[in-house]
Design a protein that fits this description.
about 0% strand; about 120 residues; single chain; DNA polymerase, domain 1; mainly alpha; elongated
Length: about 120
């Protein structure tokens, strides 16, 4: 595990000691940097784009991909606090986070409509 990720995990544990966030975020970051094979300071916006495409090709859920993006965004925010010359955050919310589609309303059954009209006319 990268030393930056270890420091980030300790920082998260101090901020949220009774949650599973440090574990999940650490796993997400390790997965990303193992996949990418680049140092933390060399990650680009295009690398994030490629990671999203890779995750989608594996069939990962939208919520899983968005959590991994949140982990990366938080990690780079942490680096901004910790480092004197931090790298730029490569995760751009408007560009990278995937929106969940909204469900359309379901049709109302005829029997329910009839009951509604009966109640109105009474």
């Amino acid at each position: 595990m990268l030393p930056e990720i270890e420091r980030f995990q300790k920082w998260l544990r101090r901020r949220a000691p009774n949650t599973s966030t440090p574990i999940h975020y650490t796993n997400d970051l390790s997965l990303f940097f193992n996949w990418l094979g680049k140092p933390v300071v060399e990650v680009t916006v295009q690398d994030i784009d490629a990671f999203i495409e890779y995750s989608q090709s594996l069939g990962h859920a939208i919520l899983t991909i968005n959590r991994r993006l949140a982990a990366l965004r938080s990690f780079y925010h942490f680096l901004g606090i910790e480092m004197e010359k931090p790298p730029r955050n490569p995760v751009l919310p408007k560009r990278h986070f995937i929106r969940l589609g909204q469900k359309l309303p379901r049709d109302v059954q005829d029997s329910n409509i009839e009951r509604l009209f009966q109640m109105i006319t009474v």
